[in-house]
Design goal:
5-stranded parallel sheet; 46% helix; 5-stranded mixed sheet; alpha/beta; Rossmann fold; binds 5-phosphoarabinonic acid; globular
């Protein structure tokens, strides 16, 4: 039984409109299946839940166990697809306040993400925050040459070497990079750092179920076997070639139908703050995959009800080029009953005996109805509860839908040529050899 269920009642799109895409989508899916067998295509993610390196998977679990034992702080250095997936899963499945808890309650190292900006304040403040705690780091970069993580690694490598000496430091540095090429691979071989491989045929934003995501996720104490199990169930469910019964294909189709109806902005909405980074991961997945050739839905996100008090006005009454995809977590992990108060000065006694989750759900239903009546179609994704299995399913659901959706749109969802533009200018301004006239 899938943990996630698509509800299109508020989407304004009919089953008949969806089924018109049946042949097109089946062709796209079959092409993806074919390409996933070709090592030169970036479609390896399609089979990852069933076709991954089991030996390396065990090595990830062993490394995570060692890090959990010898480190109070774990620093993950990476940017874009080399950090967002890990952060999304770690934050969705651990306490909102994990890093602030005492070690005995958290039972895992504090996890910090760095190398995803070039802010000196962030790095200095992180070093202050670490103090004299024991640290290990995981540098993640497929190319091995990305500027932001490379600068952070230079700083933290020196930090570890002066703290522990070169030998001990090298045992605390874990590298996740390409099998053969790149500066990071060269350095890892030279210094004999423990190294994990990003498969050739899996691009950054599709790599969360490779060592890129799995090592940090395992260090956080999250069960990666169950995560893969969830993804495996999704791989099976979404291989159903009947569009009528394939929710993943339907999501990909509906967003394209809405795009054609001038709904060019998709807002991913959640009612659970833990999902903030899941939205960030999703934004990269769809933005970098589809924003090409002056086409593509602009992906953005809101955390609700928080953002109803900042973005709510725009969604309700601004330009009508929006649609929303709402992630509804049906069963909350914990709940709080609202008590009766003798004086009732805040006027909340009408809620006495109800739970916070009940109130949250009514807020969600009220918001969906308000936005739909304001002209914003809503796609609802009901998720039974937040756990490893449902996370694995959600990841696979969105990845496959993204591959299909990009192909319906008519772009190549697996490249990112536009990302180079800022780098070229930055390198010219910084005087990098070879960029003088660019
Ligand atoms: O999805 C992508 O390909 C990008 O977001 C990359 O993951 C990101 O640019 C980081 O690249 P790298 O892993 O080579 O450092």
């Amino acid at each position: 039984m899938p943990n996630i269920k698509l509800d299109l009642e508020y989407s304004g799109v009919t089953e008949k409109e969806i089924l018109r895409y049946e042949q097109k989508v089946l062709k796209i899916y079959n092409d993806l299946v074919e390409k996933s067998k070709d090592k030169n295509e970036f479609v390896g993610w399609l089979n990852l839940p069933t076709n991954y390196n089991k030996k390396e998977f065990d090595r990830i679990k062993k490394a995570a166990k060692r890090i959990r034992k010898d480190s109070e702080v774990f620093i993950v250095i990476g940017i874009g697809g080399s950090y967002l997936g890990a952060r999304a899963v770690v934050e969705s499945l651990t306490s909102n306040f994990a890093n602030l808890m005492s070690d005995d309650i958290r039972k895992s190292p504090q996890i910090f993400f760095v190398g995803n900006s070039i802010s000196p304040n962030y790095v200095n403040e992180l070093i202050d925050c670490i103090g004299d705690k024991d640290v290990s780091i995981n540098v993640i970069s497929k190319s091995g040459t990305t500027t932001e993580p490379a600068i952070a690694f230079r700083i933290f490598r020196e930090y570890l070497e002066s703290k522990y000496g070169a030998d001990e430091a090298s045992k605390r540095i874990y590298i996740t990079t390409d099998k053969k090429k790149g500066a990071l691979k060269e350095l890892a071989d030279e210094e004999e750092y423990e190294t994990f491989v990003i498969p050739d045929n899996v691009g950054g934003r599709f790599s969360v179920l490779t060592p890129v995501g799995l090592l940090p996720i395992a260090v956080a104490g999250i069960n990666i076997d169950k995560l893969m199990e969830g993804a495996k169930n999704a791989q099976y469910d979404y291989s159903d070639t009947s569009v009528k019964y394939n929710q993943c294909f339907k999501y990909a189709i509906v967003r394209n139908i809405l795009y054609k109806k001038e709904k060019t902005i998709e807002i991913l909405a959640n009612y659970e703050p833990k999902l903030h980074y899941f939205t960030e991961w999703w934004k990269q997945l769809y933005g970098e995959s589809e924003g090409k050739e002056h086409k593509g839905i602009f992906p953005t996100g809101v955390d609700l009800t928080t953002d109803l008090h900042s973005m709510g006005q725009y969604i309700q009454e601004g330009r009508r080029d929006l649609f929303e995809t709402v992630i509804n977590i049906e069963e909350t992990k914990t709940d709080i009953k609202i008590k009766r108060d003798e004086d009732d000065i805040d006027g909340l006694n009408f809620l006495a005996g109800k739970t916070m989750d009940y109130v949250n759900k009514q807020a969600m239903q009220g918001t969906i109805e308000a936005h739909v009546s304001g002209g914003v179609p809503n796609i609802i994704l009901n998720v039974k509860k937040l756990n490893e299995e449902s996370m694995g399913e959600l990841i696979y659901f969105f990845e496959l839908a993204c591959g299909i959706s990009g192909k319906i749109l008519g772009v190549n969802p697996f490249d990112q040529p536009g990302v180079e533009a800022y780098k070229t200018n930055m390198f010219r301004l910084l005087g990098k050899p070879g960029y003088e006239n660019s």
